[in-house]
Write a structure and sequence with these properties.
Elements: H1 3-19, H2 28-39, E1 41-42, E2 50-51, H3 54-59, E3 75-77, E4 94-98, E5 106-113, H4 117-122, E6 124-135, E7 149-155, E8 161-168, E9 175-177, E10 189-191, E11 206-210, H5 211-214, E12 228-235, E13 244-253
Antiparallel strand pairs: 1-2, 3-4, 4-13, 5-12, 6-10, 6-11, 6-13, 7-8, 7-12, 9-10
Helix pairs in contact: 1-2
């Protein structure tokens, strides 16, 4: 496939990214280029360059466009790092945090996703993502009333919620992490770690939704319904002082 054949596809995907992003005019080209590269796949053997992935690029599953989500509440951002913690894919990750002070004790964001054609055909939607829970409450306030929590729910077309992730200060298996100083705290910070999630017994951190989950009430079974959404929430409990952060990256939908 030559450049004359590939260029229209790349330009078309770039236009879709731009039209669906709330980015300033001055930096949109950098954001679009970053999204295309971060979501591209390796080319088949014997071919050079990268293979653009239209679905991942438009959904911005690696948060490269630094999107300001319209359904965000509280402190939500897409940083390139949090101390020594870096994204799992591309250059940015989603950060949802309680803080930075007692005026902001909770934060949430919804990320809408449409089902790929293959998922609708097969009647199964698989959602995968990486996450890391980080808190200043560790270790002083583990097993106390200051039980900040981090949860991720799938919001189904029916409006029902299915919990995918539920972490808290008192239940997470913490690992110390250095190089992070939250406002009002000290230098003792704990993280769940990007790779600890095998304890949830979900293969490769994936969750599966069936055709029944994807079909809105009153519709003919099997047809595509409204978008499914991931609802990500971090909340402070008890003190409104110390910082807790949920990090999410590399969302994959099949």
């Amino acid at each position: 496939m030559g450049t004359s054949f590939a260029a229209p596809f790349v330009v078309g995907i770039a236009s879709l990214i731009r039209s669906d992003r709330l980015v300033a005019d001055g930096d949109w080209l950098v954001r679009v280029r970053g999204t295309l590269y971060a979501t591209a796949q390796a080319s088949p053997p014997g071919q050079s360059g990268l293979l653009v992935d239209g679905y991942r690029a438009v959904s911005d599953a690696s948060f490269e466009a630094a999107t300001h989500y319209t359904r965000a509440f509280g402190t939500v951002s897409t940083p390139t790092r949090l101390g020594p913690i870096t994204p799992q894919h591309g250059n940015r990750m989603l950060q949802v945090s309680a803080g930075p002070d007692d005026e902001q004790t909770a934060a949430s964001v919804s990320i809408e996703m449409s089902a790929p054609a293959d998922a609708l055909t097969n009647g199964i939607l698989t959602i995968c993502f990486d996450y890391n829970y980080v808190t200043e409450e560790y270790p002083e306030y583990v097993n106390s009333v200051f039980n900040d929590f981090f949860r991720i729910d799938a919001i189904l077309p029916s409006g029902a919620r299915r919990n995918l992730v539920s972490e808290s200060v008192n239940t997470t298996l913490w690992t110390p992490v250095t190089g992070i100083s939250f406002p009002g705290g000290d230098f003792t910070v704990g993280q769940s770690g990007w790779d600890h999630r095998a304890q949830y017994n979900h293969s490769n951190q994936c969750w599966t939704l069936s055709a029944a989950d994807l079909t809105p009430p009153g519709s003919a079974g099997g047809g595509p319904g409204p978008r499914t959404a991931l609802r990500i929430v971090v909340s402070d409990v008890g003190d409104a002082i110390y910082h807790s952060v949920g990090l999410v990256d590399n969302i994959r939908v099949y």
